[in-house]
Amino acid sequence: MNALKLSQDRPFKAIPRSLLIILMVSFCLQLGWHAYSARHHVERAFLSQPPSDQQLKVIALGEEEVLARILMLWLQSFDNQPGVSVPLRELNYHRIVAWLEKISRLDQRSHYPLSSAAYIYAGIKEPQRQRLIFDFIEARFKEQPKRYWRWLAHASIMARHRLKDNALALKYARMLREYTLASDIPGWARQMEITILEENGEYESARMLIGGLLNESLLNDPQEQYYLNQRLQTLKGGD
Known about the structure:
Elements lengths: L1 H7 L8 H22 L14 H8 L3 H13 L3 E2 L2 E2 L7 H14 L5 H8 L7 H17 L1 H17 L4 H13 L8 H4 L1 H8 L3 H12 L7 H15 L3
Antiparallel strand pairs: 1-2
Helix pairs in contact: 2-4, 3-4, 4-5, 5-6, 5-7, 7-8, 8-9, 9-11, 11-12, 12-13
């Protein structure tokens, strides 16, 4: 009876880490097996909807960060199925985003899902799919601007040069300024909005923005102040 009570009261943390990892790997292998089995009925496996947050927490067994890494590796390899290679443009991007969101929330400190979104999934020449990825990056940035600013900056650059969507690029650049403090991100990131305004020929708006930045009480970097003053003088003489 005492032995049974000890077994029931055994703390969760007493489970060996190696066993937890084995269980999580087994779960991911099961996902892969279902994908492989599906090929007996269709030409290729299709990406399923991710489990619920509660289901993922149960599967993680307290090791959410480990599960997040395993799932990212599985998701990134989904286009290389046994005997068939699936182009990224043929994957269901709504479900890719759903998986990226779930994985990102499993490990809030990791940049892995956002870096994959920015460099892999947004790299195809499909505007509609690119916008889905940018929406995901924007949403995560809004939740943690200081942590995820670099991915929104990347999205702004891609929106301008890949999508040729100056309005979207300007929107993201403006968000970098409005959602952060001068101490949160590098000066170049907060000044992307000025650069885009200049390139669009909106010199008056650029001058007003620089003036606003120079008047910020938190802008204490002398080098950044000097640089902005120089840009302001250049703009005044550039009309």
